[in-house]
Automatic annotation (TrEMBL):
<dbReference type="InterPro" id="IPR046346">
    <property type="entry name" value="Aminoacid_DH-like_N_sf"/>
</dbReference>
<keyword id="KW-0368">Histidine biosynthesis</keyword>
<dbReference type="InterPro" id="IPR036291">
    <property type="entry name" value="NAD(P)-bd_dom_sf"/>
</dbReference>
<comment type="function">
    <text>Catalyzes the oxidation of 5,10-methylenetetrahydrofolate to 5,10-methenyltetrahydrofolate and then the hydrolysis of 5,10-methenyltetrahydrofolate to 10-formyltetrahydrofolate.</text>
</comment>
<keyword id="KW-0378">Hydrolase</keyword>
<dbReference type="GO" id="GO:0006164">
    <property type="term" value="P:purine nucleotide biosynthetic process"/>
</dbReference>
<keyword id="KW-0658">Purine biosynthesis</keyword>
<dbReference type="InterPro" id="IPR020630">
    <property type="entry name" value="THF_DH/CycHdrlase_cat_dom"/>
</dbReference>
<dbReference type="GO" id="GO:0009086">
    <property type="term" value="P:methionine biosynthetic process"/>
</dbReference>
<keyword id="KW-0554">One-carbon metabolism</keyword>
<dbReference type="GO" id="GO:0004488">
    <property type="term" value="F:methylenetetrahydrofolate dehydrogenase (NADP+) activity"/>
</dbReference>
<keyword id="KW-0486">Methionine biosynthesis</keyword>
<dbReference type="GO" id="GO:0004477">
    <property type="term" value="F:methenyltetrahydrofolate cyclohydrolase activity"/>
</dbReference>
<keyword id="KW-0511">Multifunctional enzyme</keyword>
<comment type="pathway">
    <text>One-carbon metabolism; tetrahydrofolate interconversion.</text>
</comment>
<dbReference type="GO" id="GO:0035999">
    <property type="term" value="P:tetrahydrofolate interconversion"/>
</dbReference>
<dbReference type="InterPro" id="IPR020867">
    <property type="entry name" value="THF_DH/CycHdrlase_CS"/>
</dbReference>
């Protein structure tokens, strides 16, 4: 078997066209959705990510503001910027790019963002809403993975989903979203014994560890859906995921590539959250 590709670029183009159409409708009512992105320091990967986020906003007709601050910015000054953006009516979504410099308590900064503008979905109120099934912003990367499953028409009810990785940004919210879609969920992590024992039983596998070759062909049930959240570099410096793509694609039923899989979907779901925030602000 050769797995079918789930093309994150193609799906993103489709979803971003829907976003652009909704932005136009809102513009007719005099509202332009606005996203503020704060970058502290000069992490090169973060610089690329925030540029892509701001460009995606512009491409869909949204307003965006990029604030870049030196790594020496104090926590107090960063909190003051967040408070100012909370009170800025032209801004509907606030994103503070992580990681932050070590002298800043990232969780304190996230909790300072108004839950109504928490388009990253990292605020404890957003996490609690997801946990309890109440409306709130879902973290963009796992939400993008759910959109990919929806796109291929995959019914998760009663299926066994295995998530590898327990981060607050991907693994934990991913498990909750799969659970909400009626999958039976196993959440594996660095202390899991015999990872392959779990993955071999899975109908759906989401790999979100940040390490190459975490999932190899011998660990995958024939026909399974494999979603690769990893963003790593191989020995030649080429972008690669957590999954041994060439090996696993010979066994899986569906697979996401890296690049061109989950990555573009993360930014797309950020646009969707920002647009939702703008629409909700109108009541
Ligand atoms: N750093 C890496 N991914 C993300 C993300 O999705 N949001 C924020 N704020 N920082 C990140």
């Amino acid at each position: 078997m050769t797995a079918q590709l789930i093309d994150g670029n193609a799906l993103s183009r489709q979803l971003r066209a829907d976003v652009a159409a909704r932005v136009k409708t809102l513009a007719g009512r005099g509202i332009t959705p606005g996203l503020a992105v704060i970058l502290v320091g000069d992490n090169p990967a973060s610089q690329v990510y925030v540029r892509n986020k701001v460009k995606a906003c512009e491409d869909t007709g949204m307003h965006s503001v990029l604030e870049t601050w030196p790594a020496t910015l104090s926590e107090q000054d960063l909190l003051a910027r967040v408070h100012a953006l909370n009170n800025d009516p032209t801004i509907h979504g606030i994103l503070v790019q992580l990681p932050l410099p070590a002298h800043i308590d990232a969780q304190r900064v996230i909790e300072a963002i108004s839950p109504d503008k928490d388009v990253d979905g990292f605020h404890v109120a957003s996490a609690g809403a997801l946990m309890t099934g109440l409306p709130g912003f879902w973290p963009c990367t796992p939400h993008g993975c759910m959109k990919m499953l929806e796109h291929i028409g995959y019914d998760l009810r009663g299926k066994h989903a295995v998530v590898i990785g327990r981060s607050n940004i991907v693994g934990k919210p991913m498990a909750l979203m799969l659970l909400q879609a009626n999958a039976t969920v196993t959440l594996c992590h660095s202390a899991t014994k015999d990872l392959a024992h779990h993955t071999r039983q899975a109908d759906v596998i989401v790999a979100a560890v940040g390490k190459r070759n975490v999932l190899t062909a011998d660990m995958v049930k024939p026909g399974a859906v494999v979603i690769d959240v990893g963003m790593n570099r191989n020995d030649e410096g080429k972008l690669c995921g957590d999954v041994d793509f060439d090996g696993v694609k010979a066994v899986a039923g569906w697979i996401t590539p890296v690049p061109g899989g989950v990555g573009p979907m993360t930014i797309t779901m950020l646009l969707v959250n920002t647009l939702d925030a703008a629409e909700r602000s109108q009541g």
